[in-house]
Specification:
- The protein is mainly alpha-helical.
- It folds into 2 domains: 48 residues, Single alpha-helices involved in coiled-coils or other helix-helix interfaces (Up-down Bundle), CATH 1.20.5; 130 residues, AhpD-like, CATH 1.20.1290.
- It has 11 helices and no strands.
- Helix 5 runs antiparallel to helix 6 and helix 5 packs across helix 10.
- The longest helix is centred in the C-terminal third of the chain and has 24 residues.
- The relative contact order is 0.17.
- The model has no long low-confidence stretch (mean pLDDT 96).
- This is Carboxymuconolactone decarboxylase family protein.
């Protein structure tokens, strides 16, 4: 059981309507959102921020944004968000070879230099202390414009919020997310950890 119990999807109809976004992204409304709606202003603000961050206005694809989210969540150790991010990357058309080898993005030929620069940025920005430096900036500017960099950092920052929310909450993970986590991350020892419903 999580720290706070998720409410029914029917609890707040405005949240429910906004949360239809996640049916495309994940195939279900996440328990994190169902918990946030205990204060509907939070759930609605979060969904609107999520939609804005994930909108594509440049060359950063939906699939790459979800891989950026995975790298960020992996750096912070949030198993809930790792599974969600890899599931969304698959649903948004990431290549199977990339999904199978995301742990090795720095060296695997399925990843371009532009993607590596973006994923290294995600890793550096997600560390404590923060590790973004002049070298990261130089590599980003070789492949991406400033608007695209803002989009990437929006994803990283959004998942910073989600990583803290879900790991502190011990959010119960959904079956579909478990399936995706096992499918693509299992060979590296993925487990749901504290998100199996037994934390509290």
């Amino acid at each position: 059981m999580a720290l706070v119990t998720p409410l029914s999807a029917e609890h707040d109809l405005e949240t429910k309507e906004l949360a239809e976004f996640f049916n495309e992204t994940l195939g279900f409304c996440p328990n994190s959102v169902l918990t946030m709606q205990r204060r509907p202003a939070i759930s609605k603000a979060f969904i609107n921020l999520n939609k804005a961050v994930m909108a594509n206005e440049g060359k950063v694809t939906s699939a790459l944004k979800r891989m950026i989210a995975w790298v960020s969540s992996n750096a912070t150790g949030c198993r809930y968000c790792q599974a969600h991010a890899i599931r969304a990357a698959e649903r948004y058309g990431a290549e199977k070879e990339q999904l199978d080898n995301i742990w090795d993005y720095r060296t695997h030929p399925a990843f371009s230099e532009a993607e590596r620069a973006a994923l290294d940025f995600s890793l550096a920005a997600s560390q404590v202390p923060n590790a973004v430096n002049a070298e990261i900036k130089e590599r980003l500017y070789q492949y991406w414009d400033e608007g695209e960099i803002v989009e990437m950092l929006g994803v990283i920052s959004l998942f910073g919020y989600l990583n803290r929310w879900n790991d502190s909450m011990g959010t119960d993970i959904e079956e579909g997310a478990v399936e995706s986590g096992n499918k693509y991350l299992g060979k590296h020892g993925y487990s749901v950890g504290k998100h199996d419903g037994s934390l509290y």
